[in-house]
Write a sequence for this structure.
């Protein structure tokens, strides 16, 4: 619903007094141009919607997340003497509260971290795995059932990855790192525009499953952006992890509750799946030079190779086509992303235009230069010389 709001200007006219034969001048209020207020995003209470901050600077450390409350959780760890690993895990746990559509204990986590004490850069592969009973015959509609609901759930790796990172590379106790997330769940957080829009889009599916009691007002209506909501059940779960350790998620009371919930709702993740804790695998990260810097990113099964291919293509373009704020540069950026995603899937939409690429080819600079030359030719640019 869009409501129009107009302000009135009540300033008096400055015309001279009328003469004997002149008609009187009537003062009329002048209208300013109306402005639009999107009332769909407003709650009737006094709330404030926090927009993401685009630019930030710091001399002592930096934390960046999709929600300001999670960012504050990471900063709190740094202020208490923790290192970047402590801050990252605290921020991730907090995002599980205030960004539930994209984060949470029930997901999978991958991390690229640098341990300054040893000089090592490590990729933690926390890929989740399918439960033992996840056979093709288990699904009536394979595409739909693996997208939403209990049947779509894999064995969560996030708690195991958090525990591994803190135990091996963190400096603070897990109970300390969990404190901000527990406080957010108990005391409440402000619903972001992202959560509001996603909840509105998925309202029908949320209302049809057990999540409605947590993410819909009265189990029916979407919480407006800026509304403050609490998650007491999640708070109790996080507090139990603080008191009994992350292993409780896989071997203790939390594991039993997950088993019972899956059994009651036709899911496939049971106690024996959880008992085989999905500990992360430490892998060697992929690396690429980017200008004067070196970028480290996730190896397979992560998407780091896709990022490296995009950067290699972008750096191989003529300088004028690297400007993504220009029309031609924006088109080249879109084509670069499209090409990298096609190569990742290794299933070209049109074999006459895009040839399949192997994993090694995606990391190959020569291959990227060839793609950049093809893009440049479409805009009338000739060969590019690289020294």
């Amino acid at each position: 619903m869009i409501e129009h709001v107009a302000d009135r200007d009540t300033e008096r006219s400055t015309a001279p007094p009328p003469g004997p034969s002149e008609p009187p001048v009537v003062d009329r209020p002048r209208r300013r141009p109306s402005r639009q207020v999107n009332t769909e995003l407003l709650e009737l209470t006094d709330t404030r919607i926090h927009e993401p901050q685009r630019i930030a600077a710091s001399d002592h450390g930096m934390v960046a997340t999709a929600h300001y409350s999670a960012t504050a959780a990471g900063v709190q760890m740094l202020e208490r003497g923790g290192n970047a690993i402590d801050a990252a895990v605290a921020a991730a746990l907090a995002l599980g509260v205030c960004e539930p559509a994209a984060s949470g204990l029930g997901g999978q986590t991958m991390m690229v971290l640098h341990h300054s004490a040893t000089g090592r850069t490590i990729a933690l592969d926390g890929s989740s795995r399918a439960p033992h009973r996840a056979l093709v015959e288990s699904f009536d509609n394979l595409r739909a059932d693996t997208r939403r609901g209990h049947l779509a759930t894999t064995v969560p790796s996030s708690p195991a990855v958090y525990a591994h990172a803190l135990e091996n590379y963190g400096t603070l106790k897990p109970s300390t790192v969990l404190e901000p997330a527990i406080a957010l769940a108990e005391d409440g957080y402000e619903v972001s525009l992202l959560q509001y829009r996603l909840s509105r889009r998925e309202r029908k599916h949320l209302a049809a499953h057990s999540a409605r009691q947590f993410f819909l007002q009265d189990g029916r209506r979407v919480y407006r952006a800026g509304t403050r909501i609490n998650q007491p059940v999640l708070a109790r779960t996080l507090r139990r992890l603080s008191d009994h350790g992350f292993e409780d998620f896989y071997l203790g009371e939390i594991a039993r509750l997950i088993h019972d919930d899956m059994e009651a709702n036709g899911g496939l993740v049971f106690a024996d799946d959880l008992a085989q804790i999905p500990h992360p695998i430490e892998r060697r990260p992929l690396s690429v030079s980017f200008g004067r810097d070196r970028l480290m990113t996730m190896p397979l099964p992560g998407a780091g190779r896709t990022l490296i291919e995009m950067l290699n293509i972008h750096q191989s373009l003529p300088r004028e086509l690297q400007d993504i704020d220009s029309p031609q540069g924006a088109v080249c950026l879109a084509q670069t992303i499209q090409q990298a995603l096609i190569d990742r899937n290794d299933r070209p939409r049109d074999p006459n235009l895009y040839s399949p690429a192997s994993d090694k080819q995606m990391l190959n600079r020569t291959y990227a230069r060839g793609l950049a030359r093809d893009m440049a030719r479409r805009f009338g640019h000739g060969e590019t010389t690289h020294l």
Observations:
- The longest helix spans residues 327-345.
- Residues 1-15, 348-352 have pLDDT under 50 and may be disordered.
- Residues 68-282 form one domain.
- The two ends are 57 Å apart (CA to CA).
